[in-house]
Write a structure and sequence with these properties.
The complex is a heterodimer.
Chain A (H helix, E strand, L loop, with lengths): L1 H27 L5 H8 L1 H22 L5 H20 L9 H12 L1 H18 L6 H18 L5 H24 L22 H48 L13
Helix pairs in contact in A: 1-3, 3-7, 4-5, 4-6, 5-6, 5-7, 5-8, 5-9, 6-7, 7-8, 8-9
Chain B lengths: L15 H16 L4 H18 L8 H22 L8 E8 L10 E6 H27 L2 H4 L8 H30 L7 H28 L10 H26 L9 H20 L13 H22 L19 H9 L3 H4 L4 H10 L1
Antiparallel strand pairs in B: 1-2
The chains are: A mainly alpha, B mainly alpha.
Organism (chain A): Pedococcus cremeus
Keywords (chain A): Membrane, Transmembrane, Transmembrane helix
Protein name (chain A): Energy-coupling factor transport system substrate-specific component
Amino acid sequence: MSASRGVRAGAMGLVMVVGVVAFTWPFLVTPGSELSQLGHSGDASLLFVLLMALLGLVLLSEMSSGHLDAKGVAVLGVLAAAGGALRVLSAGTAGLEPMFFLLVVAGRALGASKGFLLGALALLASAFLTAGIGPWTPFQMLCCGWVAMGAGLLPRSSGWTERLVLAVYGLVSGMVYGAVMNLWFWPFMGGTAPVGAGFVPDAGAAANLHSYAVFYVLTSLAWDLPRGLLTAALVLVAAGPMLRALRRSLRQARFDAPVRFATPS
Amino acid sequence: MTPRLGSTPLPRLLHPAAWWAWGVGLAVAASQTTNPLLLALVVAVAAWVVLERREVGATNPLVPFLLVGLFAIGLRVVMVGLLGGGVTGRVVLFRLPEVPLPAWTSGVRIGGAVTLEGLLAALYEGLRLAAILACLGAVNALASPRRLLRYVPATLYEVGTAVVVALTFAPQMVDDAARVRAARRLRGHTGRGLREIGRLAVPVLVGGLERSLDLAASMEARGYGRVVRRSAASTRFAAGLTLVGLLGVVVGLYGLLDATSPAVLGLPMLVVGVLCAGAALVVGARRDPRTRYRRDPWAGPEWLVSLSGLVPAVVLTAGAVLSWPGLVPHQVPAGLPPVPLGMVAAIAVAALPAVAAPVPPLLARSREAAA
C-alpha cells in the first residue's frame, strides 16, 4: 500500500510541476528555444491547453481512483454542488465570486489533498451548470484546486487567529488567482496586447515579467481586488460557524471506526 | 460502416463524443488563422449546424458565447485604440490626446495616434477568439457536456460520480437558500448584506451535508462507490506507465524551454510522454469490471461528424506549418484579405453534419408535426 501511495504522490508532484510550467512558461523560456518559436504564432498556448486537458484527467484519476469511498464521493459532491450553485448565482457580477469563500473554508476543513479535489470538482461542476466548458476549464480547475489546497496547508491554529489567517489568505489568494489565471492566455494575445505589456518570446524573463506586471495592473486588478476583499470579508464574518458545522459533519461521515477488542481483565 | 449520404439516417441522438470531436476540430482550425473571411465562415458553419441539429428544449449556449465573442472584439479594438498595440501602421486615422506617464512605466503609452492597421489587427485577433468561442458554444448546444460524463474512462469513475452528485444537488441547494432567506425575511431580517450571507450559508450547508450522508448510506447499500480490487501486477503496470509518461512530459517540456538541449528532448519526448499517460488511463479503464447501462452506439454518422470536424483542423494546421498564403493576411499595408479556396472548401466540409447527421428525435417529431 505504501508503494502505491509513493507512486501516487510522485505522479501528483509531476503533474503539479507541469501545471506550474503551463502557467509560467512565458518567464522560463530561453530565447531561441523551440517553445519561443512556437510562442510567436500562438501555437504554444494551444499546446499547453491540450496538455493540461489530458494531465488534468490523469491527476483526477490518480487522486481519486481506488481510495475514495461512497462517503467521500457524496461529501465532495455536495460541497462541489454548493460551489457550483454559488458560481451560478454570482454569474455576471464582475469579480464578485463568493465561491472562493467556500473553497477557503472547506479546503481548511478537508485538508490539502481532498481540498484540491474539491476545488477542481467545484469549478468543473459550475462549468457544467453554466455550459461553459472551454480551453480555460483545466487551468481554472488547477488554480481553484491550489486555492483550496493552500487553505488546508496553512499552519494549525484555532479561534480568532484561524479566522484572521484565513481572511488574509482569502484576500491574497483571490488576487493571486487572477494574476495566475491571466497567464494562460496572455501569450496568446500576441500583437494586440497594449504597447509595453505584451509577451515577447525572445525578450527574456525580466522584461516579460515587467510587461506582465503592467498588463495585470492595466486590465485585471480592478476585477481581482473586489474578489479578494469579498472573500476576506465573508471569511471574517462567517468562517467560524461554517468551520464548526463542516468539521462536525465530516466527523459524522467517518462511520467505519476501527474495531478493537480488549482482553477482559 | 460507410455512411449513407443519399438518405438521412433515422432520428436519434448522436454520440456526444462525436460532436465534441467536431467542435474541437473546428476550434483548432479557427485558432490557426486570422483571415476574417475564413473566421466568419467558421462562425457561420457552427451557427448553421446548431440551427439544424439542436435538440428541442436543450439550452442554447451559442447565443451567450457569441455575445461574449462580440464583447471580446470590442474590448480588443478599444484597448488597441487607447493603449496602442504591437502593430504600427502608416495610415493614421486620428490622434487621441497623449497622457504623460512617469519613467518607470517604460514603453507604456496612453492615447496617441490610432492607425488603421493597428485597429484591423485587433479586429482580426478578436474575431479569431470569437470564432473559437462560437465553436465551443455550438458544441455545448449540440451535445450537453453532462452526456459526455457517462463516457469518462472507468479510472475516473469516482470523480464522475462526485460530479453527477454535484449536478443533481446544486439546484436543490439554490432552492434551500431561497427557502432559508424567505424564512429570515418573515422574521423581520432584511436578507441583504454580508452578515446575512453568512447566516444563510450555515443552514444550507448543514442541510446539504446531512443529505449527503443519507446519499452515501444509500449508495453503500446499493453497491455504488465500491473500491474495485485490482491485481497487484495490473496496478503496478498502470502506475509505472503513468509515472513514465509524466516524466516524459516533464523532460519534453524542459527540452522545449531550453535552447541548448538536443532536439530529441523536445517535442518527440513530449509526444511519447503524452501517449504513455493517455495509455495508462485507457489500460486502467480496460481492467475495470464495471459495465455501462445503455451506451450510445458509435456508427457511421458518428464517424462522419467527427471526421468532418477533423478535416478543417488538419488542413489549416498543415497550412500554418507550411505557411500557405491567405491564412495570415498581410496587415501592413492594410488591404482586402484574400480568399484561399482550398481552405474555404476544408471549412465547408465541417458543415456536412447540418444535412447528413441524424436529426434528434424530439426535433424530428416537431418537424413532422409542422409539415
